[in-house]
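Thread amino acids onto this structure.
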C-alpha cells in the first residue's frame, strides 16, 4: 500500500487545523497518521507546551563534509544576543542548550551513543582536515573519532600550556599506526610536521616518520625552545626523501647528520638552521650548504642562542664565490632570524658583501627578522 511521507502528512494536518472532525478521523487511518496528528491535537489542547519538532526527511549529517563547531557556537550566540528577553546572565546556559539541540539534529539517525564524538565516528570517517584544541583532558570519543579516519591529510593539535604531554599518549600512536598513509601534514603546536614546543617521545615520532615520512613536504621541530634530537634528524634523512622545507636543530658535533639530510632529501629547497651555543655557527652552516645541498634556494639562520664565533667577511665572501660557481647557477634567499650582536648582519663589511651579491643577482632576497614574523615561524 502506498504511504505518504511524514512531511506531506504534516502539510495535510496543518491545512485541516480548523476542521476538528476530520482531524480526529485522521487518527484512525494508521499508526503514522495517528502519530503525526496527535501532536497537533495535544498542542492545540495545551496538553503539551510546544509542538514536537519535525524529524528531518534525510540524514543530513551524512552529506556534511566540514563541521565548524566554533562557527555554530558563534552564530547561535549572535542570534541569542538579539533576543531582548534573554539576560546576559542566562545567555551562556541558553547557548549551550540550543547548540546541543542542533547537534542532536545533526547526528539524527545514529543509535550507538548520545555523545557527539561517538556519534560522529559513525558518519564522519572521510575527514581530510582535523584541528584539535586541547585544554584539560583527551576524551576517548576524540580518540575514537581520529582512529576511524580513512583519508586524513592535515592534522593540527593545539595544546594548552598546562596540558601534560603524557595526555597525548593515546593520540600520537594513532598517527603512527591506525591512520592511513594519506596523512601529509601534522601540526602539533602546543603537516607539514610542525612541532613548535615540547613533543611526545622521540620513538613515537620516528615511528610516525617511518610510516608517513615519504608523504611529508615540510618539517618544523622545536622552533620555540630549540629542542632537537639527533636520532630524530637521522630518521628525517632516512624516511623523508620528498621533503622541501626543514627546520630543526643540528649540533656542531652532528655535521654528518646534516650531510645525510642533504644527500637523502634531494628536493629540499628551504632549510632553517639554528645557530649559537652547541648548535652550528654560520660558517659551518654555509660551508655544508654550498658543498652538499643540491636544490637549496632559501637559507634561514635562526639565532636561538648567542653565537660562539662571528662570521668573518672573508668567510662570507668565500661562500658566495663557491655559490656562484655552482652548476646550474641559481640565486639564494638569505634570512637572519632573531638577529643578535654576533650575527653576520651586524658586521658592516658583511652587509657590503650582501649588497654586492644582491646587485649581481645571486641573492634573491635578504631579510632580518624575529620570532614574531609568522612567515618564518
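Threaded sequence (377 positions):
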Amino acid at each position: 500500500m502506498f504511504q505518504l511521507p511524514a512531511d506531506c502528512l504534516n502539510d495535510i494536518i496543518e491545512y485541516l487545523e480548523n476542521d476538528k472532525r476530520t482531524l480526529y478521523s485522521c487518527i484512525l487511518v494508521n499508526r503514522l497518521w495517528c502519530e503525526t496528528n496527535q501532536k497537533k491535537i495535544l498542542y492545540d489542547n495545551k496538553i503539551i507546551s510546544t509542538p514536537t519538532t519535525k524529524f528531518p526527511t534525510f540524514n543530513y549529517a551524512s552529506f556534511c563534509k566540514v563541521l565548524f563547531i566554533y562557527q555554530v557556537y558563534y552564530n547561535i550566540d549572535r542570534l541569542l544576543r538579539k533576543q531582548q528577553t534573554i539576560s546576559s546572565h542566562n545567555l551562556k546556559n541558553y547557548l549551550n542548550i540550543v547548540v546541543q539541540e542542533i547537534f542532536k539534529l545533526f547526528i539524527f539517525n545514529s543509535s550507538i551513543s548520545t555523545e557527539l564524538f561517538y556519534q560522529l565516528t559513525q558518519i564522519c570517517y572521510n575527514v581530510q582536515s582535523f584541528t584539535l584544541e586541547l585544554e584539560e583532558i583527551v576524551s576517548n570519543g576524540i580518540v575514537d573519532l581520529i582512529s576511524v579516519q580513512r583519508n586524513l591529510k592535515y592534522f593540527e593539535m593545539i595544546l594548552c600550556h598546562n596540558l601534560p604531554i603524557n595526555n597525548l599518549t593515546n593520540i600520537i600512536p594513532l598517527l603512527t599506526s591506525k591512520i592511513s598513509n594519506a596523512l601529509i601534514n601534522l601540526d602539533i603546536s602546543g603537516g607539514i610536521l610542525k612541532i613548535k614546543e615540547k613533543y611526545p617521545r622521540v620513538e613515537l615520532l620516528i615511528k610516525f616518520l617511518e610510516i608517513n615520512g615519504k608523504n611529508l613536504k615540510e618539517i618544523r621541530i622545536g622552533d620555540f625552545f630549540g629542542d632537537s634530537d639527533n636520532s630524530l634528524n637521522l630518521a628525517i634523512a632516512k624516511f623523508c626523501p620528498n621533503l622541501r622545507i626543514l627546520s630543526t636543530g643540528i649540533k656542531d658535533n652532528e655535521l654528518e647528520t646534516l650531510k645525510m639530510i642533504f644527500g637523502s632529501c634531494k628536493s629540499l629547497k628551504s632549510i632553517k638552521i639554528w645557530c649559537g651555543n652547541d648548535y652550528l655557527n654560520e660558517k659551518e652552516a654555509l660551508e655544508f650548504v654550498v658543498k652538499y645541498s643540491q636544490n637549496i634556494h632559501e637559507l634561514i639562520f635562526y639565532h636561538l642562542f648567542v653565537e660562539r664565533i662571528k662570521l668573518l667577511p672573508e668567510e662570507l665572501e668565500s661562500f658566495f664565490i663557491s655559490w656562484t660557481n655552482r652548476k646550474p647557477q641559481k640565486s639564494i634567499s638569505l634570512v637572519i632570524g632573531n638577529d643578535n650582536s654576533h650575527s653576520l648582519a651586524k658586521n658592516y663589511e658583511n652587509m657590503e658583501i650582501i649588497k654586492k651579491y644582491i646587485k649581481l643577482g645571486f641573492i634573491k632576497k635578504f631579510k632580518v627578522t624575529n620570532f614574531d614574523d609568522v612567515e618564518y615561524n
